[in-house]
UniProtKB/TrEMBL annotation, chain B:
Residues 38-156 form the FAD/NAD(P)-binding domain. It comes from Prosthecochloris ethylica. InterPro entries: FAD/NAD-bd_sf (IPR036188), FAD/NAD-binding_dom (IPR023753), FAD/NAD-linked_Rdtase_dimer_sf (IPR016156), FCSD_central (IPR049386), FlavoCytC_S_DH_flav-bd (IPR015323), FlavoCytC_S_DH_flav-bd_sf (IPR037092), SQRD (IPR052541). Residues 361-429 form the Flavocytochrome c sulphide dehydrogenase flavin-binding domain. Gene3D superfamilies: FAD/NAD(P)-binding domain, Flavocytochrome c sulphide dehydrogenase, flavin-binding domain. The lineage of its organism: Bacteria, Pseudomonadati, Chlorobiota, Chlorobiia, Chlorobiales. PANTHER family: FAD-DEPENDENT PYRIDINE NUCLEOTIDE-DISULPHIDE OXIDOREDUCTASE, PTHR43755. This is FAD-dependent oxidoreductase. Pfam families: FCSD-flav_bind, FCSD_central, Pyr_redox_2. It comes from the Bacteria. Residues 170-285 form the Sulfide dehydrogenase [flavocytochrome c] flavoprotein chain central domain.
Length: 125, 430
């Protein structure tokens, strides 16, 4: 059924670049996930960006929290990766975070941490 | 810091070189470069404002115009808290100043009356016409008033509020609750699926019950439900048993919950088991995508908008992206959190498309907190990915507050519910 996903991608790509970046492969979360390899010249991995954008809805834009949720802006990539894995493996107490972290493969967690590492180095606007 | 000369860095340089006097003025009417790309966003709610902010934040070379009739947007999230006496209207008011001033989104307070997907333009009620390279439509919902005999927009605005769009409707129901005679009952009538915010009516019942317990001890809440089951049912039922056992009564569709008509003069609703009288009657009618989406032919026979799940581009009109409650997003519920998540994914996707690059496959999330009482909240969470079956929730992730959660955990969730509101409002409008 990868054909259906390819057609969604193709539909979005009218007039844009070729589909060579699309590389469907199974993931540990049950197969059929779509992965796109980042072209080498990218400044950040677009897949990491898409994954990371989710975090801000509870932790604030760029992880700058104004509420009670812990902010993580400025934390290192290693710290973020470890923390997310601990939540995922129930090694760290949480109410909701563990439920979220279980939705990501270790590879995706790495991409999220990398993206925030990158984003933090950019001047925010 | 790395001084590698990236495209983004280049854009920033270009912009900072010329922006000094033009910041806040890169609207569609005065594009900076002839080739500057322009995105128009219809609706400044959870989906639309998220998309507008994130396009500008992630790619400042793209101009964004946001069209929204109201200069203050009242959020449905936490509007039930207002009814319960736990928040004020001012606590759920969001404005567009930061989008305008900090993100240089050109915000126009007007109504889009026409979309021309062939010529890539929209018409506004005030007479303006805007051209777009890509359009984002996030108009929320409208109600099928005629699904309930005797109900109408006028009845909703005067006698029996739906309170399912926040603002005057929230105020009407809150005032009615305050003025209701002790001993009268509050009727809450939720629709069948799908509808905006599946746990919404049940959080409402909880917080209305909290209010009644304090101020109208002889009154009850009767939920006349179209359905046989509802979101977070086990957790709500448990909370009701603990806190409101003789206040809240839930009637399922097959147990007389279905309503067919209302009588605004008699203040009754018609059920299969006869008329039911209420002091406050909250009718939440079945729903469909907002009018502009229907008028533009973006809906299918279900009344909602089919979209490509990678970029939320309409499968009917290319170049038009539909997000939020109005779109069909697989397993995702119609929630503000989901709408915002879709808005960000769409922002990233539009940027890649405009750069001639492949959009990354989506990753989406949702968390819905429901307050059962002050210091007592429950939640449901999910992470979504794209498979050949469309957008599905990832097995083994997400889920509900555990049924055996102790009081500490329930009260922590209530604290986090407030934290969530503050941060998502900041992430969207701040
Ligand atoms: C009681 C209640 C409680 C809720 N609680 C929660 C919660 O706790 N958490 C959660 O995540 N979600 C919650 N929700 C759901 C949430 O409110 C919606 O899912 C969310 O608002 C959907 O976002 P949207 O962008 O699709 O629409 P909206 O946020 O409704 O925004 C639509 C906007 O489009 C504008 N518009 C419409 N037509 C036009 C036009 N022609 N031209 C210009 N502008 C137009 C409207 O004025 C409006 O501002 C709740 C809902 C209710 C009713």
């Amino acid at each position: 059924m990868a054909g259906k996903i390819a057609s969604w991608l193709a539909a979005g790509m009218i007039g844009a670049a070729a589909l060579s970046g699309c590389n469907p492969q199974s993931s540990e979360n049950g197969g059929n996930a779509v992965q796109t390899a980042a072209p080498a010249e990218e400044e950040f991995n677009p897949r990491g960006q898409i994954l990371a954008l989710s975090c801000a809805s509870c932790h604030g834009t760029d992880g700058k929290s104004e509420g009670i949720m812990p902010g993580f802006y400025g934390k290192s990539q290693v710290y973020l990766e470890n923390a997310l894995k601990q939540f995922k493996n129930d090694e760290r107490y949480s109410t909701v975070m563990g439920r979220h972290a279980k939705g990501y493969t270790d590879e995706e967690i790495k991409l999220i941490a990398e993206y925030f590492g990158w984003a933090c180095q950019q001047t925010t606007n | 810091m790395d001084h590698k000369f990236t495209r983004r860095g280049f854009n920033k340089l270009v912009l900072s070189g010329i922006a000094g006097s033009t910041l806040g003025a890169f609207g569609a009417a005065t594009p900076l470069f002839a080739a500057q790309k322009h995105v128009v966003v219809v609706g400044g709610g959870f989906g639309g404002a998220s998309a507008a902010k994130y396009i500008r934040k992630l790619e400042p070379s793209i101009a964004v115009t946001l069209v929204e009739p109201d200069s203050t947007f009242y959020t449905c999230p936490f509007s039930n808290w207002v009814m319960g006496g736990l928040k004020e209207m001012s606590d759920i008011a969001q404005t567009f100043d930061i989008l305008k001033n900090r993100y240089s989104v050109d915000v126009i307070h007007d109504l889009v009356t026409e979309i021309d997907p062939v010529n890539h333009s929209v018409k506004l009620k005030g007479g303006k016409e805007l051209k777009y390279d890509r359009l984002v439509v996030s108009p929320g919902i409208d109600f099928k008033y005629d699904a309930v005999e005797g109900y109408s927009e006028e009845v909703a605005n005067t006698v029996m509020p739906h309170a399912y769009k926040a603002g005057p409707q929230t105020e009407l129901m809150t005032t009615q609750l305050k003025n209701m005679k002790d001993g009268d009952n509050v009727l809450i009538c939720p629709p069948g699926n799908p509808f905006r915010c599946p746990p919404g009516p049940y959080e409402r019942a909880s917080l209305v019950a909290h209010f009644l317990k304090k101020y109208k001890p002889n009154s009850k809440v009767i939920i006349l439900d179209d359905k046989e089951k509802f979101s977070k049912q086990g957790l709500f039922m448990k909370g009701w048993q603990r806190l409101y056992s003789d206040i809240i009564e839930w009637r399922s569709g097959s147990m007389g919950g279905k309503i067919s008509a209302v009588d605004a003069d008699a203040m009754t609703v018609e059920t299969e088991f006869g008329p039911e009288k209420g002091g406050v009657i909250n009718v939440i009618p079945p729903q469909m995508a907002g009018k502009i989406a229907r008028d533009a032919g973006l809906t299918d026979s279900s009344g909602w908008c089919p979209v490509n799940p990678i970029t939320f581009e309409s499968t009917i009109h290319p170049g038009v992206h539909v997000i939020g409650d109005a779109c069909i997003a697989g397993a995702m519920p119609k929630s503000g959190f989901a709408a915002s998540s879709q808005g960000k994914v769409t922002a990233a996707g539009i940027i890649r498309l405009m750069q001639g690059k492949v959009p990354a496959p989506p990753s989406l999330v949702n968390t819905c907190y429901s307050l059962v009482a002050p210091g007592y909240a429950v939640s449901v969470a999910a992470v979504y990915k794209l498979t050949s079956d469309g957008i599905v929730s990832i097995k083994g992730a997400g889920g509900l507050t555990p049924m055996d959660a102790d009081d500490d955990q329930l009260s922590e969730e209530a604290v986090y519910a407030r934290g969530w509101y503050r941060n998502i409002a900041q992430d969207i409008w701040g």
